[in-house]
Design goal:
single chain, 214 residues, alpha/beta, 5-stranded mixed sheet, 7 helices, 7 strands, globular
Amino acid sequence: LATKMIILAIETSCDETSVAIIEGKGGLKNPSFEILSNIVLSQVKIHAHWGGVVPMMAKREHQKNLIPILKKALIKAELLKPTTVVGSQNRQRLSVLAILNREPELLEQFLKFIPTIKIPKIDVIAVTVGPGLEPALWVGVNFAKALATVWNKPIVAVNHMEGHIAAVLLGQNGGISNFQFPISKKIQNANSKNKNKMQFPAIALLVSGGHTEL
């Protein structure tokens, strides 16, 4: 297994547009993670008048926000490099048109920005595929598919409820570099320094929005 991996993550399951870039090191036996960038744009003010999130409005805002947020995330992670060689990406234009044909505003921004930058040094693209608002989810999924096509990168589908479980595995100080994932089957002493580490197998109760899972 790879001992180092850079992940570009895309989240559009509800009313927040987010792009993060994470570097993982150490493989499964001694994992550590560092957030290189994490850009989030909330739509709370836009939906406040309606008393809740309006799916089609959320979809529209995600289309507007994804490219600007991606640019900010790449800049912060020091992975944004301009290029003047656009021939190879232009050959994939028809594929991108097909993928983003239902996201016209995103498509326009995509074609203006993506061909002007070098393929960033990422290894995989992760994207939320559910649960969530279907119109909003599809914007992120199609964006990930378009990037994967142009950059020739694999996609990992992420269940956002499972993401809530993963968040519990973070160190108590919230630092992702202290990600605690016990691989050993040895039962740890409750009085040891590792008593805060989650033990597997485990049961998790998830209550989030309209989704409840055990």
